[in-house]
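Intended use. Records like the one below are meant for learning the mapping from a protein sequence to its folded structure. Do not use them to infer anything beyond what is encoded.
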Amino acid sequence: MQLRYEEIFLSGASSNELETVERLVSESPHATIYHSISWNRLIVDLLNVDCIYGIAFTGEEPAGLIYFYLEEGSLLSPKYDPFDSLYGGPVYLAAHSIKIAEFILKSTEKKYRSHNLIFRFSPSLSRDIRHLYRGCVEMNTAIIDLDVGKDAYWRNLKKNVRRDIRLSERRGVKVRLGEEKDYSGYYEMRSRALSFEHEDDIIGKNLFIDFMKLGIKKEIMRFLVAEFDGKMIAGALFGVWNHKMYYHSSAFDREHGALCANDLLQWEQIGWAIDNKFNSYDMCYIEPIRYPGIAKFKMKFGDSLAPFYVVSKRSFSNKIKSRVELLFSPRKKK
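Structure written out for the chain above:
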């Protein structure tokens, strides 16, 4: 099998090149929303970077791809962007094997000799990646099967979760599609939720609002709001792409926490996804030690953990460069 590697810059891609990327991303069983052209155009528009797709060909046929960001000549990992792009490792078509991913990574390392790259591989590649890279780090998500149907999914929820959803409905909580007027309030609510988990919100308000606007306009994000007595008391943001759904964020007003509005939001969105023939819902990262509250909430809706793996690829020249920069950088006075 003769393999070759080519790169496509999203900013200047021809229609044929875009079709190649679109075919690989839409047909690969391992691709995620974060590999899609729509998502990466969103990142390019907001962060003033370019996106590179590295493509592996077998003869003239595309077999797999990877993506990076390029900023002022520096190659950046897929995990660089601040918008919680979870997965970014190489993916390939079902007719091929993990060898395609290995070839893509080696080709990238060879071309960019000074690099410090970190990839989070999609969960469907977990077994192969674990055997290919011994130094990889295991993390977890939960992926919910939506093909079971709405009734079966409802029955499979724990009794206390079903009770809380019914309670929220009985007390008059209403769910609707979020509007632009809600974006600012949701950002503030989300920031308060992060501070409760002892985390700072690294995204500025204006940038996050622009992110929501563009994502919803491109139809790769869906935003729901829960109201009580005409006031927004909770919100949730989801990635939606290729019949796959992804948890992005959710938050609620703690003053109205007893109304369980966040639970109702999840149920309404899951019901919408099932009605629209979505196959899966990825809760996107579950870490009980670092984010115990968020992990507990996510696992209400899908408590079967699925591993995914993080691989670091750092060149020797990059290590030397970092040490030299550290050696000659000004030292802070005590």
